[in-house]
Write a structure and sequence with these properties.
By secondary structure, the protein is mainly alpha-helical. The protein is built from 3 helices and no strands. It is rod-shaped, with a radius of gyration of 17 Å. 0% of the residues are buried.
């Protein structure tokens, strides 16, 4: 059944997106150093 496979793929991307809250924080600092002269 494709329904059991879809629930497994949805549960994997959910928990993997929560832990990576650090990578997005390192990206904003790069834009700030480029804005100032």
């Amino acid at each position: 059944w494709p329904r059991t496979r879809r629930t497994r793929t949805v549960t994997t991307p959910g928990p993997t997106r929560w832990p990576p809250p650090s990578p997005p924080r390192t990206r904003p600092p790069k834009r700030w150093s480029r804005r100032p002269p």
